[in-house]
Write the structure tokens for this entry.
Amino acid sequence: MSDLVPSSSSTAHSPSDRSTLSAALKERAAAIGFELVGIAPAVRAGTWEKLDEWLARGFAGEMKYIERRKDAYQHPEHVLPQVRSVVMLGLVYGSDGASRRDQSMASGIPRTDHSQPAPRIARYAQGTLDYHDVIREKLKQLADSLHELQPGCRTRGVVDTAPLLERDYARLAGLGWFGKNTLLINRRMGSELFLAALLTDCELEPDAPHETQHCGSCTRCLDACPTGAFPAPYVLDATRCISYLTIELRNAPIPEPLRPGMGDWIFGCDVCQTVCPWNSKAPATQAPEFTPETTLTNRTLTEWLSLTPEEFAKQLGPTPLSRPGWPGIIRNACIAAGNSGDISYLDTLERLTSNTDPIVSDAARWAIEQITRAAQNQSPR
């Protein structure tokens, strides 16, 4: 939600007023469906220097929009002028612990109606709608509530589309700590969370920041990463991350050395979360919009490879899977086919080698080479 609701001046309150207003707003947030809510002061982002260093090391890859807006990430005043408070919100999207373990151990989502396994899609994208749309509507409802409680205030709601270091303010708001996989982890809800923020010029009562770490000596997330995307604890090299490769690297081929590690992931990756002990007992989502849609999760790799641009736009347009575009999804599916070693994909892949988009034809040729080589290695000598 990018709308600004103006007033003539910023709004300060006495401590008792701040406490009452903050409690009422948190109650509204819970009623709207947010499972986590905390309030942070609008101060300078504590990890901005680390962001600057991260960009300098080239870890953002082709995400040039981060570099372009780098300076704006320093303070939330660049998102909402005269901001005083940042209301941080969390919404669970994950499955129950047993489902997480099943998905992390399987080579694909189990199927009962086809012989082929379905390729894997990140859990957050398995619903029927784009989470941005769902959360923007909830943010609008919360902003309307704040305007009722405090007429004349100014607000702006954001969900990972503005230059705001959400994790910083989530930690300051007491919602959790940074895991070694760089994700925010909440003691009750784990890390499979959407984070959103409502910025306001109202002076609300801030919560105590989360000052402690609870990962201890555990390195499961670091050890499990299929492509070695963590050069050190708490540092992600996005250029090696399957989520980046399958989603954000939209108009380029995926580097060949990283393709085998992608396995059967065609959109995103959950490995560093499914192995995290804090997610083993985390609750499943209560939002119907984020419940897995079987027409997505049960789709075979052949069905993905056969998807036309028109079908892609119609079926996936309202979902997060639209982000890499049709060429990106087909490229990813070709790589998954190549990693499978399954000769049943060869005819479909052969047709894709003549596609006019070079990232599709390149991936299809690579997949054919991989499958052919695997078949030769399995042949009797």
User: Anything to note?
Assistant: The beta strands are 36-41, 85-92, 120-121, 155-158, 177-178, 184-185, 193-200, 265-267. The longest strand covers residues 85-92. The chain has 15 helices and eight strands. The CA atoms of residues 97 and 317 lie 30 Å apart.
